[in-house]
Amino acid sequence: MDLLRSLPLGLYLEQPQTWLHKIDPRVKFAWLMSFLTSYVLANNFWRVLLVVMLIITTLFAKIPRRVWRQQMGWLLMLSFFVLAIAAISPDAMGINYQPRLPANEQILTQPANSNNVAPEETSNGQKYSYVLFHKGPVRVTRRSLDLGISLSSIIFTVIYSTNLYLLTTAPEEITSGIESLMQPLRRLKLPVTEITLTLTLSLRFIPLVLEEVQNLFRSVMTRAINWKKLGLKGAFKVWMTVAERLLDNLLLRAEQMANAMMVRGFTSPNEHRVQWHDLRLKALDWVAIATLILFWGIRLAVGTKV
């Protein structure tokens, strides 16, 4: 089991360099925020369209298949299970679903149906049914299906858009872009440099956490522990010991990182600033900005929830 390959959360893809890597981190951050906010008060058509856009972007960017195949597969499977569970779950309406026409339609009088349109039909002649599928204990209604599509698409969009951003943007670029965007907050005397430095360290710490979890998991598996003889209580003690060891290792790594920074003189971020990247908008960035404006235009035109 290789967590660094099977679960590449927060890891940066150094090679190959795709066109997504070359876009300014501030522009990519604006795209990320657009994906994370545009589904608010949006219809399901737009939410499903966001999922399709993310998949097409991954394929069009020519990111190696080994990088995104397993993670996208797990996310799609998770979204499908969320959709299935939400669709067959009660929709919380708290009503009984009964046909609007009585069993004997002959008792209907002409004045009650003066428009010559059956109560179960819409204005265009199509039959309407709130319950889409009902067989035994399984019942799918329009509201439950709508909730299922909404939840599953939001889960995929939030997780995969964030991972795609981290995959194609180096941690130093992320912090440089966020620091550039947060410059107006300096007037409010907010510690912008300290915030971005903390963000840089946290992004660098994610691979270390995955590496420690992977090493401890392998150490447990190589000892060939007989879990049946241990029982539930014994297994709980083993995993508690592993969790305690993981915490000790992570604290040791954090202390080593802090000592390395202090030795190099990074005692105050305002005095020891390192300019990681020269942020300048290029032709590809302006194309991405124009596309983002088109993105929000389409969102307002066809994605607004009625």
UniProtKB/TrEMBL annotation:
Keywords: Membrane, Transmembrane, Transmembrane helix. It is a multi-pass membrane protein. This is Energy-coupling factor transporter transmembrane protein EcfT. GO terms for cellular component: plasma membrane. It comes from Nostoc linckia z8. It comes from the Bacteria. It is found in: Membrane. The chain crosses the membrane at residues 44-61, 73-90, 147-167, 283-302. Pfam families: CbiQ. InterPro entries: ABC/ECF_trnsptr_transmembrane.
